[in-house]
Amino acid sequence: MHIKTDIQGAYAVINIGSNSVKLFIPSRSRFGYRNVITSRLAANSMDNGRTLDPESVERTFRAVETLVRDAKDKNVSEIFVYATEALRSASNKNLLTDRINAELNIDVDIISGEDEAKIAALGASLSFPAHSAFADIGGASTEIAVKCGERLECASFPVGAVRLDETGNDIFALKKNAAAVIRPKGTAKHIVGLGGTFSALACISLELDAFDENAVHGTVLSLSELKRLCRILQPLTPDRIVRRFPAVKPSRAKVVKAGLAIACAVAELMQADDITVSVNDGLNGYAMLLEKDGHI
Questions:
Q1: How far apart are alpha carbons 285 and 191 in whole angstroms?
Q2: Which of 288, 289, 291, 283 lies closest to 71 in space, CA to CA?
Q3: What is the reported pTM?
Q4: Fewer beta carbons within 10 Å, N or C terminal of the chain?
């Protein structure tokens, strides 16, 4: 794949996720240019996620608007926006998509859960081509892709860190609830983990004072380490998590216990020995497919 070597004149990809909105611009740097704003689009949704909360929609629009402005400041030639589970399952998704189209003149590509798993695997494969399983924990859903020979088995499950967090804060009870929903299409000794949950868990495991993508990328979280993190985080409130682990943002600290519960459920269900954290993610995968043939 050819990645453009300079931000000037490049394109940008924005992902509207259930917990955050992310900007990615391919560049000569190792991970490209990235910017993230937590907007918690899936928070306080009603009817099992079918009705988005208007305040969450407003926060998310402002986040998209800010990242579009950031991308234009980098002189990109075109901006692509895609969305995942929170908009995928919402009956009132037009509150956000119509406004983005009207005020920012951008169409939002709402991709399927299977495509979300596919682009996650593609993005992570840039750094970990030998791995055969990939897990992406989002705010409202979890995607798992498993290589089976020449095929990539992709699946999406309606359990994510934001929505699971709203059901309680006991990691072990949350893990049981997540395990009841997730049904991976295969097993793997080694999994690649993508998304904010895994990056935060790497920061906690490494006890970083500040987020360092070079340190986080490639961090291996063994099953025993995930269990250790459960014991550490279980008694902590979000405020105490931030004080003890300053690399974790307050917005992430609020949902990291739910994300850890899902990570543990995935590892156990897939009979994995460990999960390797990847900074490269679905944004990279979406960009790869855009460069290959112009569409997902």
A1: 17
A2: 283
A3: 0.90
A4: N
